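Shipment paperwork, digital attachment
Item: protein structure file
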Amino acid sequence: MHIGLLGELEVLDDEGNEIAIAGAKLRGLVAILALHAGRVVPAAQLVDALWGEDPPAAVRNGLQGLASKLRRAFGSSDLVVMRGDGYALDLAPDAIDVGRFERCAAAGRAMAAAGDLGRAVDLLVEADALWRGDPLADFVYEEFASAAITRLSELRLAVLEERLDLELQLGRHQRATVQLEELVVAHPLREGFRRLLMLALYRSGRQAEALRAFQEGRLLLGEELGLEPGPELRRLESAILTHDPSLTLPAAPPPVPGIGAASRPVIPDALTPLVGRDAELLELGRLFADQRFVTLVGPGGAGKTRLALEVGRAAARGRRAGGCLVELAPVGDPAGVPLAIAAALGLPDPGRLAELIGEQDLVLVLDNCEHLIDAAAEVAEGLLRRCPRLRLLATSREGLRVGGETIWAVPPLGPEDAVRLFMARAEASGAAIERSDPQRIAIADICARLDGLPLAIELAAARTRAFPVAQIADRLNDRFRLLTGGSRTALPRQQTLRAVVDWSYELLFDDERRVFERLSVFPGGCTVATAEDVCTDDVVVAADVADHLQALVEKSLVVAVPAGDGLRFTQLQTLAHYGRERLTERGDAVRVRDAMAGHFARLCSESAPAFTGDGQRAWLRAIDLEHDNLRAALDWAVANDDAETALLIAGGAAWPHWLTGMVVEGRRWLDDAFACRGEADERTRALGLTGRGLLDFLAGATEHSDEDLAAALEIFERHGDVESMALAHSFYAEQAAVRGDLDEARRRRRVVLDSYGDAPSDPFAAAARTYSLAKLALLNGDIDEAERHYRAATEGFGRLDRPVMNSICLGMVADFDERAGDHPAAIRTLEAAIETNESLLGGFTGSLQARLGWVLLHDGQPARAEAVYQQALEAARRVQHTMVVFQAQGGFAVLHRLHGRDDEAAEAATEALALYRADGFHRFRNRIDPTADLHAAAAVCCDVLAAIAAEGDEPERAATLLGHADRLRDDADVDVPGFQRATIQGAREAALAALDAAAFTLAFDRGRHGDGVPAIP
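Attachment content:
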């Protein structure tokens, strides 16, 4: 049992599972007993604390009842005991975080008194790590908690002050400065923190800032209390003004005892086997064999040190001078870098490092250079210049940027290696890990969400003794609280995930911190331009954002990923999670999220101009790249009932959702946006109606799609919004045609045609008019006229670089080529359509590939057809595009039959016919006669099943299927495909051989009338 009071009340069982304590009085009883763990609290004191001055008459019974409830909640009758006239919580002090805090603090003070300052600091850090928030945060207004809150708060500040004093004694003033600045802001009248800050600033070479800190304190004391600073603070000011030598400490701790000049330095062996990293070790080993100085960079916890040690050990084997590890993490002062190297090598004079190393064949690993980056760079460059056989490996969050350095970014663990590491470390911790597929999938998800960072994975694996894997996955949203308890011998900054990231964050300049925090609102990363728009304010100016991004990339806190012609800047999930927490703490979260949502709403508001204008290709690429950000912006707008922003995003992204086949997601976006209660501009709502009308129709929910599009058109017409009218008209006109209402389709198409007549000199309007003339000709049954206009429209849209319209028109031209029997021309045109489509969002690609497969079959290229059909089927299943699944499975039925795979052929044909029978094809069909094409594909499936039935001793079924296929081809007005003639002839002969002619004819005729065969329409 563990009880936490240093924050909100927390009660955990022995395995770390949270125990729910319901009710204010029951929670109060837990807190009071925990504050006095192991001691009896008189009943009268408990009554007074829980019921106040006017308790009910039966209060004793009420107290007994609370105690009984608490025993049940704890699952034990032995923990809450009644002794004399009171109750006691029978737990050891260490079971309460307050007790552990006080023990660690006392042990730290004892170590300090004994002269072991480093261990003292570690213990005091461990004590402070127990705090989760304000003490007894649930009971801040309860009288019983008042004294304890005051005592614990003061004790924590005292421990912080003592620990930071020790840090300064150890020469770690640069690292301490960051926390001291925050503490002085939080406790401006506490002279102890101000004194330490002044000393830390002075030792960092910032004398003016140290004196400014004194003056700010004097001003505050005078204004608030009418007092002057105390004598100790005044003495420190005088000492700083006179550069008193007593303020200066030795540059670094003395050399580590026990390493003599005659000792052969070594790189220590690892205590655990390295999991994975085979490819990385091979690549890095080859690189280090060619380069004298390699720096491994990456975020905290990426495994830089472990890789460097493995490579360093391998490189040191056989070298006379061997290899040596120099740990720079404990060094607090830049001047301590040469001292640390000398101590590690056992050299007597750090001022003569290059001379003493000389021409020795030595491998040196400089670990954790980031907080001493300038000093480490200077020393490294000097040694490399003067020690010709020296080879250096460094680890750092950023490169040292010196001559001869090769920077090597440490990648995350691969998925398989990450799972192996998790399982190995979980088993090493004593947990019993089930090796089932579902368990491995859950672990893989955890590792992916932890960005493949080895340290984070190890910390998560260590929690498997207390939590099942599923619970660890559920708790990753609070990962910094969950992932604690690393190696006791590791540096404090490597014992928890938060400490790992804190270390990197605290090394940033203030503006870099702000940009780092603000980037966390982009789950999909961002471009420089987007960051300049969203991440700026009166402190961070747009002109500096690119430099800040570059610095964050160099410091391994942001990843630059090539995208198109530029770069996108992304964060690992863990770093983004941390950045969001810091953004909230700074009070910037709402403003930055509002700015992000507004930025992407403006992008989506260009939907209609992009549909018709020159920026179509660039806009669609941007929408595709920003999809994750659009979703996050929409979620934020919906959460705040911001209808204007939500509808701009959801409505603007609707036709790109159509192009990508993401109809279900697009509809969900629109549903959420229309549910917002806030106000929205009339045209913004019309944009949403346009999108909803389109996507509802595609999803088969057609009852209101026409109404939505008609309402949108009325609004756009009233406002004279020609571009938005063109967008809405395109879908409004097409819906009537797909429904089969030809008169209405003609009327709507003429309206579209008339609308483009208003811009006679506009090249796009000319191409769009030609396209509408082609559509109208098809509606009128004039195929020749339609072909002429489609070919002209294809040329027009291609010349204007309108890729969406060009891809659609190319698909139609291919259809004309196919009908003319010019299969090579149809193949070339479809390939051009696919290439055009793939350069955008790729939403039509599956449909085009299915058609290409069909033409390839006709052209005698079954191997190519099979590959293309496979691509089409995979894409169609991913986005639930039933039309493409039908087409692809029809093609596969033929191909499987050709290769003698009858079971697979029957399965493919049966699925295709089931989809055909369901008639769920609500997509726009870019064909000359889409209904005829459906019949022709269904006929092919019936013929395949007929051939299989004939060979399977089912002659009557074979005849019926052949009859039905014949009827379908008649309806489609197409001939038997060349690639199926032999199949059909063989099935007919086999069925006739088994039946007499009359029986065959009877069954065949039943099939022509659609009777007697289940599994076909």
